[in-house]
């Protein structure tokens, strides 16, 4: 986006705008390649590069020069790719079995005589919720709950919480006014998107009481719609209804 804005910025010279356009095209091509590798579980070949004057601060239109470049003998893999933000994580080494491209496996519903809080506690404590795989969400393959630097500070979601919520949703949008079934992926799984009612960046809890399974349309509306406040209120009511099994 920054490169695309630079192309249209009249304050830059014609040469600078042309340079930004070339970089933007390269960035899009690289992003397309990363997405393809993630979707198809393809390995990545990487180069090991050392930069000249590594301590030098470069200007917006300056490119660094390499003092060393060599094809890495070890394969890399795309561990995560978030379709909504375009943020991704590439790791050195072949993809571990059942990690990259792994679908979230869903447990059966909690025992009828147990309280919803017990299911929430299991998710918060990292208890295993493994069963027959039926549903996936937009964070397939993301398994770390911690924060780390990846083009800025990114908050990772607990996989166990997402699995619990997908199981709770039973393949349908949990918004009370919707209840539409998720679509079926090419691999035969039901697709829904998990959404934090109060964002993690705003101090929201990574627990079932703050996470809902939504259809893609309502997930986008929750983020970008003019009625976000009303959607938020309905989301909280919907989560409560899903956790207790009682409709308002």
Automatic annotation (TrEMBL):
It holds the Pfam family HNH. One of its GO terms (molecular function) is endonuclease activity. Residues 1-12 have a biased composition (Basic and acidic residues). Residues 1-23, 105-128 are annotated as: Disordered. This is HNH nuclease domain-containing protein. It comes from the Bacteria. Residues 160-220 form the HNH nuclease domain.
